[in-house]
Backbone:
């Protein structure tokens, strides 16, 4: 048995996997986010450990025999969070999370001081990353900054509680903006921008390698055997890729959740920071990945459902699916930037908008426009990935949006690739974490990283493209026109 622990923003999820690839059970414990000021987003690291213990206790209660046979533990988690520890290994302040935007000015300063930053770090400096947060702290909370001895990432705080070791993996460390992503080592140049050194950083291992062993104290608390291995683990997206079996060049997934992520494995380091993509290390040795990220995806459909007072997102999506070709061709256009955008614009202040509304516009047309607008945003992301050298023929569709056949078909047509869905896609990072635990015991990628069974395949549709192509061109023209008139 292998235990996967996924430290999310809203929940800690744990998953029990056996060596026949059967998910024995999944449990979760919810988390709260604190927003003390506008643009701030924080969590108490102690809450992650409390939630981990609570979720693990649920698994132990329901599957006591299988739980007792756990041989290794893997970790996955929200990326970019800044957990600060003092000389006594005590947390100095609440962790600043990935969706915190306070460090925008610090990003500008870092890019100005080190123009080569994107080439080293694989991405433009963005407020969500860890390094700008530390630069902000040095300026605004100097007393706290002066006490910092270690800076670790969210899932690595759980590792510390499990093993007593300060360790991170290559994929999660990529999102700190302190890693030389191509060399898979800490960068002295990047650390210098925030007044830190390698001594402040955890030791690095590959995600599929052992990182430490369960201490007797943690073992007693969890009801497990002391000494079992804890794998390096991964950031949430890389861990999800492991769960989907995406480990070879050209393999990947498309996540239609709150945000939208296009994730493609690359055989080498292929940055394209100019288009606001992320080039990060994968969770297994000698491999990297490219990501395009849009900040609002399936959440746009949730927003318009609430706006229109519809009974459910599924009902509104069904109305959109009922539109014929002519109705789709004359539906409004929608820019899905409700929370700003990363790829390809890297614009935190832009916002969403409807265009080409008419007296005939109804709920079905608005819903279709929102779904299509998100698809267009993801098509922008695919262009950015292709500009960086990504070659992809098929992607797994995961997240809440994967339940929509309309969305899946539209994405296949726009991205000009096969889109496949799977029976089991919700486990995400927790399944990947359990698989990384399995790999850390000496198992091979070929045996562990299998692709889940395909339930549906969607192929590009040339007739649909005749409708979508001219609308996509108009969509692409709207953003620069709006930027030209913004104050």
Residues:
């Amino acid at each position: 048995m292998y235990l996967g622990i996924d430290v999310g923003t809203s929940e800690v999820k744990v998953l029990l996997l056996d060596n026949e690839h059967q998910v024995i059970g999944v449990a979760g414990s919810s988390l709260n986010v604190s927003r003390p000021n506008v643009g701030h987003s924080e969590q108490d690291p102690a809450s992650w450990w409390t939630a981990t213990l609570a979720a693990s206790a649920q698994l132990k209660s329901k599957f006591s025999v299988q739980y007792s046979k756990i041989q290794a533990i893997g970790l996955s988690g929200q990326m970019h969070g800044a957990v600060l520890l003092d000389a006594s290994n005590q947390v100095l302040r609440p962790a600043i999370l990935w969706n915190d935007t306070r460090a925008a000015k610090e990003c500008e300063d870092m890019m100005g001081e080190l123009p080569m930053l994107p080439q080293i770090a694989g991405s433009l400096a963005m407020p969500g990353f860890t390094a700008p947060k530390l630069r902000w702290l040095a300026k605004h909370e100097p007393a706290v900054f002066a006490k910092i001895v270690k800076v670790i990432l969210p899932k690595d705080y759980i590792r510390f509680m499990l093993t007593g070791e300060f360790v991170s993996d290559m994929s999660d460390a990529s999102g700190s903006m302190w890693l030389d992503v191509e060399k898979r080592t800490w960068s002295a140049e990047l650390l210098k921008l925030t007044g830190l050194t390698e001594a402040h950083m955890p030791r690095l291992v590959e995600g599929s390698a052992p990182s430490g062993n369960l201490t007797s104290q943690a073992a007693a608390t969890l009801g497990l055997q002391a000494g079992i291995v804890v794998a390096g683990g991964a950031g949430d997206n890389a861990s999800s890729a492991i769960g989907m079996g995406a480990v070879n060049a050209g393999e990947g997934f498309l996540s239609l959740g709150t945000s939208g992520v296009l994730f493609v494995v690359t055989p080498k380091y292929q940055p394209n920071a100019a288009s606001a993509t992320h080039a990060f290390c994968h969770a297994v040795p000698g491999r990297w990945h490219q990501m395009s990220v849009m900040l609002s995806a399936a959440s746009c459909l949730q927003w318009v459902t609430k706006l229109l007072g519809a009974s459910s997102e599924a009902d509104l999506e069904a109305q959109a699916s009922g539109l014929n070709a002519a109705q789709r061709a004359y539906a409004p256009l929608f820019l899905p930037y409700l929370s700003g955008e990363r790829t390809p614009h890297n614009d935190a202040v832009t916002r969403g908008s409807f265009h080409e509304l008419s007296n005939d516009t109804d709920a079905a047309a608005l819903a279709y426009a929102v779904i299509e607008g998100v698809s267009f945003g993801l098509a922008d992301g695919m262009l950015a990935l292709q500009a960086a050298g990504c070659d992809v023929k098929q992607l797994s569709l995961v997240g809440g949006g994967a339940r929509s056949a309309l969305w899946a078909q539209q994405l296949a047509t726009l991205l000009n690739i096969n889109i496949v869905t799977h029976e089991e896609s919700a486990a995400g990072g927790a399944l990947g974490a359990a698989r990384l635990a399995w790999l850390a015991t000496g198992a091979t990628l070929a045996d562990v990283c299998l692709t889940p069974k395909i339930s549906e395949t969607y192929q590009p549709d040339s007739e649909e493209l005749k409708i979508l192509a001219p609308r996509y061109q108009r969509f692409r023209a709207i953003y620069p026109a709006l930027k030209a008139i913004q104050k």
Notes: DSSP finds 19 helices and 24 strands in the chain. Residues 207 and 233 are 4 Å apart (CA to CA). The mean pLDDT is 94. Residues 363-387 form the longest helix (25 residues).
